[in-house]
Amino acid sequence: MSFLLPKLTSKKEIDEVIKNVAEKVLVLRFGKDDDSVCLQLDEILAKTTNDLRNMASIYLVDVDRVQIYARYFDISYIPSTVFFFNGQHMKVDYGSPDHTKFVGSFKTKQDFIDLIEVIYRGAMRGKLIVQSPIDPKNIPKYDLLYHGI
């Protein structure tokens, strides 16, 4: 399903999208096209594109091609999904130590839709961090890895 979603292949393309997507949640999925979990997530993202067309723009980013952003967001596990609104990085409290990105795949299409709706509503009210609506049982658990410390 990743072939249905637009891909960003350079820092310049990512910078342009972050700058130009207005009044919508920008979803950047960092991963690899040949990873099974990334493909699972891509299927969910592709299935929600039409439902969320007024609220979100979804793009795929290959971590090997745009390493500067992979390092900036400390993408240690793939897939990792990062959210923006009007150029601002949106953070989400998932009940984990890292609020900057969602790591792993969403369990259901509805989990992703609910999250986008919460981010969108929060951003429209000026919030930069929102509480995740996803059931904690559906949030993948992982350990933080700090590179270069």
The number of helices is 4
Reported for the largest beta sheet, the result is:
7 strands, mixed
What is the radius of gyration? Answer: 14 Å
Give the rounded overall mean pLDDT: 90
Briefly note the structural class of the backbone. alpha/beta
| Count of extended strands | 7
Helix fraction bin: 25-40%
Low-confidence stretches: none
Explained architecture:
This protein has about 150 residues and is α/β, with parallel strands linked by helices. About 30% of the residues lie in helices and about 20% in strands. The chain has helices at about 10-20, 35-50, 65-70, 110-125, and strands at about 5-10, 25-30, 55-60, 80-85, 90-95, 100-105, 130. Strands 1, 2, 3, 4, 5, 6 and 7 form a seven-stranded mixed beta sheet that branches. A hairpin with a 2-residue loop joins β4 (about 80-85) and β5 (about 90-95). The longest helix has 16 residues, at about 110-125. It starts with 6 loop residues before the first strand and ends in an 18-residue tail after the last strand. The model has no long low-confidence stretch (mean pLDDT about 90).
